Each structure stands twice: as structure tokens, then as C-alpha cells.
Amino acid sequence: MKKTIHIVIFLLCTTLSFAQLIDTSKLDSLFSILEKNDKFMGSIAVSQNQKTIYLNAIGYTDIENGVKANNTSKYRVGSISKIFTASLIFKAIEERKLKLDQTIDKFFPNIKNADIITIENLLNHSSGIHDFTREADYYNWNVIFQSKERMLERISNGISEFKPNEKSDYSNSNYVLLTFILEQIYNQPFSKILDKHIIKPLKLQNTYYGKKTEISKNESYSYKYVGKWIKESETDMSVPQGAGALISNPTDLNTFVEQLFLGNLVTEKSLENMKTIKNGYGMGLFQFPYNDKESFGHTGGIDGFESVTSYFPQDKLAITLTSNGVNYNKNTILLAVLALFYNDTFELHNFERPKLTSDDLDKFLGTYSSEQIPINIVVTKEGNTLVAQATGQVAFSLESTSENVFIYDRAGIKIEFMPSEKTMILYQGGGEYKFTAE
Questions:
Q1: Which of 340, 305, 350, 339 is nearest to 324 (CA)?
Q2: Strands, E, within 26-183: which ranges?
Q3: What is the H or E stretch that residue 82 is in?
Q4: What is the spatial distance between Cα 78 and Cα 242, in angstroms, rounded to a whole number?
Q5: 1 pLDDT exceeds 90?
Q6: Number of other residues whose CB lies within 10 A of the CB of residue 268
Q7: How many CB atoms lie within 10 A of CB 438?
Q8: What pairs with residue 290 in β-bridges?
Q9: Which residues contact 211 (CB under 8 A, 6 or more apart)?
Q10: Which end of the chain offers a freer environment for a tag, N or C, measured as fewer CB atoms within 10 Å?
Q11: Are 208 and 246 in contact (CB under 8 A)?
Q12: What is the pLDDT of residue 331?
């Protein structure tokens, strides 16, 4: 449910021959290395022509009690929920209960610009409605039950970021409002609408509207890595609603996205609307390019969970990755899977790192500022692990690649320290930024 970072799947010199087999032994090796080095916990499924061709699960769903993940383990999938919600909206449009161009003032008269914001604006994030997850106090109340009235109050009190259709900006508020619209027109809870129109028709055995995690139901806790896996708090599902409250697993999500593109959920016209990209956003779908091919899907993030599901219509290929603990760039994992599917080559990552003691880290500690970008980075330590936190962002652990160089794989960050000069250089996305200790 966190703000989505678009995953751009890109490989050079890819063999474009049609492939029906995948080198499962190499994928097994990759996931074994990820597990051994505490880089990833979760599940992956790859299917083609509605047949699973690779399936794997690594790590734990409950570290404290030693519960290992298995191929039917279930995860919170965050904003992947939005594809389900968008599909339900289009089904309602097909049933003439809604219109794409109707305004939302009938449902939410207190929302700013409700008389000019349409259903379409909500679907493709062009409404200008403020995203409640960006509020400074969000993490003070996201774990507490929120009534529908309270969520509407929070959204209504938010500022209008821009006029409808002026531009687009991702906002979870849009899909919470779409959830409430569905409940009003069907006069049922969202969970029952979901069951009736998607889950039961597709026979999805491991997908449903979430509640508090129950390990006994093969659900997963989520974790962050700071020298070791630390259990994350749980967002109360009354908060994300249809923007991010679903629980599922990779095989179910592959089935869902396959059936969506096969025309078994919405009409071809509705699907084309969902796929239409304006200012980077479709209506419940993103486009992920891959050489001359294109895939459609969505990413998801909530608590320590991260996920992505993607479908390549040309090859009838579905790939879903769900995780409850990530200490690595999941895009790199997806690239490896695609490389094997399309007969490209890839090298298994070398995770060997120098061992530094807690005392070795002391020379790096401090608060650093830069004249190039308006943020401070506070560098601390937890045991033998160096930890960095930029202004307004969550802390992340750094891994040493040499005595003075550290990386954060998930975000493609490298930091080189010059302790004698009390400076450091941060490298990310082709940029190079100098910071000085205060």
C-alpha cells in the first residue's frame, strides 16, 4: 500500500525466442543463496498458458516460532489489491451501476472538488486527492481500527494536491473511496463483493480480505532486516481497504491476472480501459516494459511485505513475487527469472562481505549534511551493523563491501566514507552527492 515505485524490467541482448521451459535448477540456486544470506523471505510463482512452471518459497512466516514458508503460504499483498478493486469497479460499470465519467459528489459531498472528480480520476490517480499515508502522524494510527466515517473524515480533511486531470499522482485515498463506492452501490461489505465477483468464480483458495495475522491459517508476519530480521507492526486492515487489504499468494495472483487478461472477469473494453496509461498510470494497472515486450501488473508494499505481479499477454506469461522480508532489490530477482525464461544469461550474486566489528563502525557515526541535496543522513549502529536514516525516511541497514564502502542493495545505494576528512559520498541512480559530518 505504500507509494508504488514503478519497476522497469529491462534487459539488454535478450534472446527473444519463445520459451516454454525454464532452468529451475538455476532459480533454485538463486533462491537458496538469497535465503542463506538473509536477503529475501517469501514466495515466487511463474506460470505460462495457465500452467505453473516454477514455484518456490524460502524463509520463515514466523521466525520466532520457527515456522518455515511453504508454497501455499499467504502474504499481505498491499497495492496489488488495487487490481481487484479496479476490476470490481469495471464490473459495476458493465452492470450499469456506475459510469466512468460520473462525478463522486453523490457519494462524497464533503470531498474537495467532488463535483468535478470522476470515477476515472480515482482509478488512474488523476483526482488530486491527498494520500492519507503521507500524513506525518500516519504511523501513529495505522495499526488501530478506523471506522469508515473516520477514514472519510481523514480523506476529506486532506488538501487538494491539484485540479482533476491536471496531472497524476499516486494516492491510496482514491482506492479507499472506490471501496466505499462499491459497498454503497452493492449494499454489501467489500469482502463479500470480492468473494462473489472474483474469489469464488475463479476458485482462489488463498485470497481474501485480510484481518490480523493468523499463523495457524498459513499467513505470514513481516520483517525488516537490521543486522537480523525484526518483526514489523501490522497495519489494521480497516485502513487500506481496497487499496491494500488483500491477503494472497503467488499462484492465486497468477490465476487472477491470467483470467483478467483472458476476458473472464471484465469485458475486452473494460480491460483496455484498465490498460490505458495516462501520465504513467492505468486504471488499476501499471505497464512494465521489457525490451520490445510489455507486461501489465502492479506492485505492493505494506508493513514489511513487498510484492509484484506482472503479466505478459504476448507470451501468456504470469510472474508473481510475494515477500514478508526483503533485504535485496526484488527487481534484480525478477530480472533473473525473466533472463532464464527468455534464454538470457545471468550471474548469481556474490554476497561475501568483510566482517567488521562494532568498534570498526565508530569512525563512521554521526549526522551528515550536503550542500547538493536538502537532507541530513544520520549514521548509527546496531551491534555490528551500520544503520543510516535520511530526513523523513525509515532507517536502513548498510552492508560493507570493503573497509570504508557500504551498500544498500534494495535501493541501489552505495556510500563511501572518508573518516579522516569527516565526509562521505552517496551514490544512487547515477548521482554522486558529498556529505560532511556536522
A1: 305
A2: 40-48, 51-58, 60-62, 67-68, 75-76
A3: helix 81-94
A4: 9
A5: no
A6: 8
A7: 10
A8: 293
A9: 237
A10: C
A11: yes
A12: 87
